[in-house]
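assembly run, all chains below
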Amino acid sequence: MLQVAWLIPLLPFIAFWVILFRGRRLPGEGAYVAIGALGLSGLLSLVILGQVMFGGRYQATMVWAMMGDRPLAVGYAVDPLTAVMLFVVTVVGSLIFIYSVGYMHGDPRYPRFFAYLSLFAASMLLLVLANNFLVLYAGWELVGLCSYLLIGFWFERPAAARASMKAFVTTRVGDFFMFLGILLLFFTVGSLQFDAVFAAVQTGSLAGPLLTLAAVLIFGGAVGKSAQIPLHVWLPDAMEGPTPVSALIHAATMVAAGVYLVARTYALFFSSPDHLALTVVAYIGGLTALMAATIGIVQDDIKRVLAYSTISQLGYMMLGLGVLGYTAGVFHLMTHAFFKALLFLAAGSVIHAMNTNDIKEMGGLAKVMPVTYVTMLVGGLALAGVPPFAGFWSKDEILLEAYHHDRTLFYLGAAGAFVTAFYVFRMIFYTFTGSLRSHTAHPHESPQVMTVPLIVLAAFSGVIGLVGAPWPLVGNMFHRFVHFEAAEGAPFDLRFAALSTAIAGAGILAAAVVYRWQLVSSATLRRVLAPAYAVLVHKYWWDEFYAVSVVRPVVWVAQQLRTFDVYAIDGAVNAIGVVFVWLSRLYRVFDLYVVDGAVNLVGWLAKAAGGRLRHVQTGRAQNYLLVIALGVIVLAVIGLTR
Amino acid sequence: MLSLIIFLPLVGGIIILFTSKTNETLLKGIALGASLASFVLSLFMTALFKIGGGFQFLELGNWIPSLGIHYHLGVDGLSLPLIVLTALLSLLSVAYSWRIELRLKEYLFLFLLLETGMLGVFAALDFFLFYIFWEITLVPMYFLIGIWGGPRKEYAAIKFFLYTLVGSLAMLLAILVMYFNAQPHTFNMLTLIEQQPLAAKPVLAALAFWGFFLSFAIKVPMWPFHTWLPDAHVEAPTAGSVILAGVLLKMGTYGFVRVSLPMLPEAFRIYAPAVAVLALLGIVYGALVAMAQTDLKKLVAYSSVNHMGYVMLGVASAAAAAGIPEKAVAAATALNGAVFEMVAHGVITGALFLIVGVLYDFRAHTRGVDEFGGLGARLPMYTGITMVAMLASLGLPGLMGFVAEFFIFVGSFGIFPYLTVVAVTGVIFTAAMFLWTIQRIFLGPFNERWAGLPDMDTREKISLVPLAVLMVIFGLYPRPLLDVINAAMTTLVAMVR
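ok done. output:
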């Protein structure tokens, strides 16, 4: 089946066009077509995953264009990393598609939603299958487009319209660096195939600072897409999109593309002198992990809590990759996809019931929405990193790698882990415990089409981490499947696992003290920690910083240039025009008085002479004879005097 | 066949002159038939065209033998796509102009005359003929803007005419310099390329280069010769804008590739960095100024300045690499990108001007970007097409614009790395500019002022859908077009040694 892997992105792509043009006339108003296409892709992905597990590899290329006499190839490849990503995207994607049938029910643009979702799935799968930078970049930009379309799906809301644009432009800044990185690689290596680039790294024809530069530039794209500092600002605003979109694109799959990119091109980062490029990745990741987690504490919008959580978790993945924990980073990508999709969909279920995103309006929902409550609790425990749930295994591995690699990074990660457990249980306690605070809401459990995907995802979140557990005899199966030869992971350490569990437990306990048992009221905390609270509430002033330092200056410069264009350049053109008009007036004066004057003068002279000479012509023969006689005399005199 | 393609529109135009002006259906029918015939023939020619076969469909006849002037036509991989593009855009524009009421007969005649001129420019291989066709395009455009234009039409028309006329004169002088230095004196462009008459005369070569430069740069338009463009676009009728942006601007870049590069490679190489810097200014400046526009047509016009900057960056890079064998691939890549961008920009910007026209001509009668809002909910078809065109213009992979930009950047990065880095920032600005425009027109709460606005009708769909389809097809699989271009550009680069 490896030879037909190209069908995986093609099926949803066809579904996109079919739904776009046939829309409501399709079964389920297009939803069934979308689910069917992605479901088939999912089955195919599962088969491929099985084949790859037993050593199957495949690669196919075709010539896409000629540049001079040099062909530019495109193609796809299937290897363990790709197979895992295909599995995650199709399985999580299918569940979210099914959930959307319930969540988007009755939306005026219902078929359009499924069309966009299908296009997104196709682009993401294309990105994952690419065996070269060109196709990867194409998929990369297309998922960005889908993200744009879906964030702005309810575009009548100005906030959604603004958020969609912010997302696209911010990530494009990252893509700018990535594109430069691709240009640099192509310039040095002469090919965009991953194989060729990595071979050049191996042979040393791409090395030294140039390699570091290329790797860091490529990482720029990942920073944009995976919402790392300093380009993370778009992701929280992206929550304006419908919740399934947040789950699929802005939590489980697309934002992980940045992590995937680093993993895919790990050879570049790894071979950069002194792992410099990886150090950059690790520090950006570590800082993002902690910073975003702290902001998550003060958010009252349930989706925004999860959004900052996503940024933070993506930071963990980057941290893992950066501290040579290749397997750990990719593993966390996979587990996170499941439990974060679960959390978002559960949040969606809550929003669906409450018609609000504000957790301070909620409370006591555990009784009314038991399925949502239990599944969200599973997601929360997985996120917090409590064994045996999925997040524990991967996060523990990342922290372990960080501990062995660089202590500063470990402390960043450990502090982040505490905060993570704190904010997610703050959210759960606010939402599900106590009593309902809103007086207008009438919460109810969501329909089965929504709860079943929740249950399936919860099951995954419960057990998927076990594939990366240190089993007796077989060891860490995930590590065996996906690993980077040169970067061997640190072995599992039971005491360390106990420590990371303790950190998570402490976070949960702290949250319970404040928000469940209310031994310390949150208002007191806010008062005591007022300066810190101000920083967090303003999200470290990133948005304000960009508004002042980037957005306004660019708009200002654009307006100044427009003025310059109208008055200076066009002014000069018009001035030349005016000068010529003026010159022609001058010529006219010259013409009128000098040239024409001279002509007139000649005429006037002739006329005057004529007037005078007129008197000579008298008509009398005597006068003429007299003149003749005088003439003869004059001639005679001249003749004689000679 | 080439003559037939070029002159069929003119024949149609002359027949129109002898038709009663009250019979509007017949007039339109003749115009449509003539441009359709020309387009179909150009497709037929494409089918017969042999990739990599150099100049084909040659036609050579004596015209004024005493001066060495011939009637000499031919197409290669550079001119073929542009000829088909011209025929296509003309056809779509005639279809779009169906509702013109004012002096229809003259309008159609001028339009067909213009088409003949443009097709001739791209097919002429004799400088004298080239110049004549070049000038023929000027006059109908002048009248199209001056008679069927907007409120400031006279100013715009005169500005357009005088500006380009200055360029034409410079070109004429440069042509004469070439002519008198060739032995024997000839206007034959192919012979001039072979002979390189100015190779040993750097001063004359520089003069000729700047002569051609002025003419072509005004036409492109390159920064800082661009200010005629926004005025001309804003005032021109929709079909005029389409032709102006889609084809007339390409005459400038075509000139650079057809004339400056192969005939004056030495001079061009020396001045290529200067040209590249001007191109770069066009890219960044064009995008930023476009961002500050509130008039939709002006916005698209400045985005043209930006995109033609990309083309010129590609051409200048290739010129700078001329004669350096190890940079031949980069040069060919940059040129491929540049020529592809010519076609892509023709298709995309042609579509964008039609799109503006759809909104302005028969519906809202305003082009203020800020006056709309929320149209996306009411005009789904129109919104979809606009999004496709704008995304193509901002270089989204999978659409035509990306392929062009990708090759230009890949090629020029090997030659002018630092300039290219700055040029790539243009991609961010164009993205911001178009998305902001989409946001202000189509997104947000619906502006009730436009409650009665209908979606696109059949005629508008006929003129826009083919362009959108082209954007997608060549964006996904550019090879059919790119192979044609690549063969010609590889030959060109190999020739310039």
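Strands of chain B lie at 56-64, 69-75.

The two ends of chain B are 33 Å apart (CA to CA).

not gonna interpret more than that til we talk
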